[in-house]
């Protein structure tokens, strides 16, 4: 059935509720796309640039036969950038799963408003899964952002320790 046919079936008092949940579903889909494109892109770009700087610095050190007393901060910053990118990629997966579960929950809520019988237990499971994945995504995003700043700090510290 087309969405307009569903709306006709819904009682007048539930039309506002139906519209709100439909809008929520669309917003959830939009947030999924937004989350994939913005902040994560910045973190990956900055960490990727940091890794590039680390490799280029090692190449410059090796090419010019420079003797660096302690390159551990440079090595650690590269490792931190790699871990930040990895945690960011994992957060992409958990973000996808969170929004996918939220979408399933919302579709069941819309069916309920339409007067259809739904499995309440299944809806609760989708809601709980969405919350778990959202929490994991938030934690992983915080970790990747924190690691990005730590990597930048270590890289800057190495650079300034040369002088």
Keywords for this entry:
163 residues; mainly alpha; 5 helices
Q: How would you describe this protein?
A:
With 163 residues, the protein is mostly helical. The chain has one domain (12-161). The chain contains five helices and no strands.
Quick summary of this structure?
Helices cover 87% and strands 0% of the residues. It has 163 residues and is an all-alpha fold.
Q: Biggest sheet: strands, sense, closure? A: none
| Multimerization state | single chain
Taken from the alpha-carbon principal axes, the silhouette is rod-shaped
Sketch the topology as an H/E string, one letter per element: HHHHH
How many beta-strand elements?
0
Distance between the termini: 71 Å
Rg over CA atoms, rounded to whole Å, is: 24 Å
Percent of residues in helices comes to over 70%
How would the blueprint of this fold be written?
Blueprint: H1 3-9, H2 12-37, H3 39-63, H4 72-113, H5 120-161
């Amino acid at each position: 059935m087309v969405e307009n046919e569903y709306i006709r079936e819904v009682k007048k008092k539930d039309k506002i509720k139906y519209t709100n949940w439909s809008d929520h579903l669309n917003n959830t889909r939009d947030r999924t796309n937004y989350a994939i494109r913005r902040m994560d892109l910045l973190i990956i770009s900055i960490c990727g640039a940091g890794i590039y700087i680390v490799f280029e610095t090692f190449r410059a050190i090796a090419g010019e036969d420079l003797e660096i007393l302690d390159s551990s901060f440079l090595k650690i910053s590269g490792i931190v950038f790699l871990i930040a990118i990895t945690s960011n990629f994992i957060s992409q997966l958990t973000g996808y799963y969170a929004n996918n579960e939220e979408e399933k929950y919302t579709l069941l809520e819309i069916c309920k408003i339409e007067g259809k019988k739904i499995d309440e237990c299944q809806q609760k499971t989708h809601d709980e899964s969405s919350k778990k994945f959202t929490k994991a995504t938030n934690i992983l995003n915080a970790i990747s952002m924190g690691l990005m700043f730590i990597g930048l700090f270590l890289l800057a510290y190495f650079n300034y320790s040369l002088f």
